[in-house]
Design goal:
single chain, about 170 residues, mainly beta, four-stranded antiparallel sheet, about 0% helix
Length: about 170
């Protein structure tokens, strides 16, 4: 007997190493075995190996999925209405009803917005901090003592290695 699968969504889990490259590590697939009463989320290696075919199971009409860090956000339709649940990439439930919509509502997609990442590279013996150009609503700030709450914006300045040891981060612009 053949078993048919209906695929509803696929998400890649990305992990950032210490180098500046991204490496995709896992593939998460939302599928329904033909005539099954619920959908499953499976976790697979990019080489096609099965990590856990039923990582998350028992979802009714799951159809959209997004990933952020170690969390999966999955839309599904329990009998009460459209819902987005939060689960870890290891399959644990964080909040099965993170967002709830009405019975007649549908969820057509999920997108996750994340803060820009501050990066560092060595160029000509100097450390260079950089972040995405789209992050215009963020500002680079620094402090010399992590116990301090007085972070100083670095706007239009060149920061050299001759300064005292400093800590840097991106903060939303006010």
């Amino acid at each position: 007997m053949k078993i048919a699968h209906t695929f509803h969504g696929i998400a890649l889990a990305l992990a950032c190493g210490l180098a500046t490259s991204l490496e995709a590590q896992n593939l998460f697939v939302c599928y329904n075995t033909y005539m099954a009463s619920s959908d499953d989320i499976g976790k697979y290696g990019l080489d096609g190996s099965t990590n856990n075919a039923s990582l998350i199971s028992g979802l009714n009409s799951a159809n959209c999925m997004a990933i952020a860090g170690n969390d999966l956000y999955i839309s599904y339709y329990p009998f009460a209405g459209a819902t987005i649940g939060e689960y870890t990439t290891s399959g644990a439930t964080v909040n099965a009803s993170l967002l709830f919509f009405g019975v007649s509502d549908t969820i057509d997609g999920i997108a996750v917005s994340s803060a820009p990442q501050l990066n560092v590279a060595t160029v000509g013996g100097q450390s260079v901090l950089f972040y995405p150009s789209w992050a215009t609503n963020y500002v680079l700030v620094s402090v010399t003592n992590l116990a301090s709450t007085n972070w100083t914006p670095i706007i239009g300045q060149t920061v050299t290695n001759n300064l005292p040891a400093s800590f840097f981060q991106l903060q939303p612009a006010e």
